[in-house]
């Protein structure tokens, strides 16, 4: 597979993921790979197999926001053929600008993947308090600053 960011890479079946309906904004692209990055951050790269220049940083939203919570719509569970909660893996897109302190994570539209079938879907949460630009790094609370 060709990646503009990583060059030629070999992708295994355990890294592949299929978006049967594509991603919002990229509906024509269906085949992706979730790739490890050689960095000390809990993020990965979602790389399109069909468009070498399309890659998105993703991270486990629960790592950054342990209190993150929402209900998966029934239609998404059926579409992804999810049978057990442990079949689910959740990712969120991360935007990393030049100033890393301004990085954001999209909690409004999580990517849900069935780990068994490797099928995924980006779900847009309706009537949610979450945004598509939550700060990736939360500012410490007053108690944490005072120590």
UniProtKB/TrEMBL annotation:
Superkingdom assignment: Bacteria
Primary subcellular site in the record, as a coarse category: cytoplasm
Signal peptide: none
Annotated localization: Cytoplasm
Any one of the GO CC terms: cytoplasm
Alphabetized UniProt keyword annotations: Bacterial flagellum biogenesis, Cell projection, Chaperone, Cilium, Cytoplasm, Flagellum, Translation regulation
GO BP, one annotated term: regulation of translation
Pfam family, one: FliW
Cited NCBIfam families: PRK13285.1-1 (NF009793)
Alphabetical list of PANTHER family matching this protein: FLAGELLAR ASSEMBLY FACTOR FLIW
Function: Acts as an anti-CsrA protein, binds CsrA and prevents it from repressing translation of its target genes, one of which is flagellin. Binds to flagellin and participates in the assembly of the flagellum.
Assembly information from the UniProt record: Interacts with translational regulator CsrA and flagellin(s).
Matches recorded under HAMAP family: FliW
Family (UniProt): Belongs to the FliW family.
UniProt protein name: Flagellar assembly factor FliW
Organism encoding this protein: Paenibacillus methanolicus
């Amino acid at each position: 597979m060709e990646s503009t960011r990583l060059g030629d890479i070999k992708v295994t079946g355990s890294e592949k993921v299929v978006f049967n309906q594509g991603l919002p904004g990229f509906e024509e692209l269906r085949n992706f790979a979730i790739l490890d990055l050689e960095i000390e951050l809990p993020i990965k790269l979602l790389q399109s197999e069909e468009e070498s220049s399309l890659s998105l940083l993703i991270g486990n939203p629960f790592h950054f926001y342990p209190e993150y919570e929402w209900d998966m719509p029934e239609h998404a569970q059926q579409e992804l053929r999810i049978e057990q909660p442990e079949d689910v893996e959740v990712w969120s897109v991360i935007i990393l600008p030049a100033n890393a302190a301004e990085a954001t994570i999209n909690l409004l539209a999580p990517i849900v993947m069935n780990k068994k079938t490797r099928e995924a879907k980006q779900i847009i949460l309706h009537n949610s308090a979450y945004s598509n630009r939550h700060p990736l790094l939360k500012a410490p609370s007053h108690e944490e600053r005072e120590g």
